[in-house]
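Work package 3, deliverable 3.1, input record:
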Amino acid sequence: AQKITQTQPGMFVQEKEAVTLDCTYDTSDQSYGLFWYKQPSSGEMIFLIYQGSYDEQNATEGRYSLNFQKARKSANLVISASQLGDSAMYFCAMRDPPGGNNRLAFGKGNQVVVIP
Amino acid sequence: DAGITQSPRHKVTETGTPVTLRCHQTENHRYMYWYRQDPGHGLRLIHYSYGVKDTDKGEVSDGYSVSRSKTEDFLLTLESATSSQTSVYFCAITPGGVTHEQYFGPGTRLTVT
């Protein structure tokens, strides 16, 4: 069974600074996908970034980057130049291997509060 | 905008009553999913569908059933609601492609009293 672990307590980060959110995963599959989602206080789930297990480069999307360390089974999200609008819950997720109907398993989330 | 709507957005119901939540998509995506979100648990998959009349269970399917008679609609039914089913319910779709990321509806907040 797959497992996603996000264990950091709530984080406070100064505006314009970078923040790293930890995510470790457990799988015996060679082919998998990793995702990060943002959930602001308004409640919607927003897709941020994707990393495939065979991707050699770390994924980047604007101010978001994914620090993918396959051997350590780690997929940390880095948010650069934090903005007040980055205050939210952030969820790491992993996709089932091919044939798994693209189901996602989610971690329990990291709370981030950006302070001015 | 992934074109996903959920109805109702909020509902309060009594224990033992049946409840049906609706997820509607406008893009004819094949895969649809129902999750519930509870404090301290993240999102957990209830049921999913990979086509009309093709559904399967997720990790927390007990007490829930689903139906998909049309591509655009995926219904989640609580046959006899219990207080433990008080939660926020999210529907999601996968457009496909290489990454298969999921896009979520706005959520339904269900309270069972």
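Chain B touches chain A at residues 31, 33, 35, 40-45, 48, 50, 56, 58, 88, 90, 92, 94, 98-104, 106-107 (CB under 8 Å).
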